[in-house]
Design brief:
The protein has 1 helix and 5 strands, in the order E-E-E-E-H-E. By secondary structure, it is mainly β. The protein has one domain (8-60).
Amino acid sequence: MSIEIGSKWVHHSGRKYEVVLVSNQHSTNIVRYPITISYRGPNDRIWSKPIDRFIATMEPDNGDA
């Protein structure tokens, strides 16, 4: 799954978020340096999660929510 900067996502709680950074995409040691998603919430706070945890709690916002 490709996650793009600027893409919109919906948390399982219903809150909407926007991806602001994808880091460690070119890491040669993903165990030590996992791909990490940084995203902005509705209150403008920035959050960050490893990609596997991000995908487990978020769904792409298709504009239906």
